[in-house]
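I had to read the description of the data format several times before I understood it. For illustration, here is how one protein appears when written out as sequence plus structure tokens:
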Amino acid sequence: MTALETDTSITDHKSPPLILNAQQVKALIPRIDVVSVLKKTFLSLAHGKSVQPAQTLTLLPENAGDFITYSGAISELEVFGAKLSPYIVSTGKPLITAWTYLMSLRTGQPLLCCDSAELTVERTAGVTALAVDTLAKSDSDILCIVGSGQVALAHLQHVLTVRKWQDIRVFSPNLAMDMDRQQSFKAIYPSISIVHTVEDATDGAHVIMLCTSSGTPVLDTSTLQAGVLVTSISTNAAEAHEVSPALLSVSDVYCDYKDTAPYSAGEMQIAIKQGSWAVDKLKGDLPSLMARSCALPAYDKPVFFRSIGLGLEDVAIAYSLWVLAQTQG
């Protein structure tokens, strides 16, 4: 069954919702073609078969953090749902979790409640892979990754085949001392270079994937060469941004979805407030890129792609997980 095909016996299902914990999701998700599911989902959005409202940010009392609600509905699958992702302030690192809830548009019944940690990692990396495949110059062969967590590893895995990479570098402040994490990268790409500064990582790179949870810029974008593609995910802290807002005014800017990203992405919010950039400067988003209804970069300036995460992505992957789990009993 493909991502956007509906099985009547499944959508008529009225049993109690299936609950999948982190381990169960992690076991199932490698069997899903995440990038293919996401591509079809963005095409569905482009053709008016899906609805993607803006994500909502709810601040917790007493400055204890916040939570974001990512929702969406896909008529072709006859499902809708939402992911709740909290950012909870603690004495140590902030607590960040996520759970996705999937429901049937046909029966109004809940279908699935699943831990979204692995789902979020995979769909975040899959979205970036779509952007790199669509927006990077065809002869790009030098890839840079900034960040060394699970999201960075997933990014590397998903973009391995979208270009013929000759040189892949990764930088993270503590990576040089973390041999186990280095081995995780080398298990995916044995000849990857572990570099010691962000400047070494980005020098001459054709594609720079920022895979951090930083709320402030992680590299100097003022020296970027024309044609380089920078992708950014950042985190859900208020106005978090991995690049300077100044980058927007000198780049061809794309995002995952034009109706939501500019109002949630930190660098876009800041640039709009400062008056240095406006939403009408967006060149395109993933629905229009997948439908080939927007212009590609001219590569006479840097290219910037920003994803904030969409409820539709979570709903589509959750549906695929649910179908797979049903077939596995």
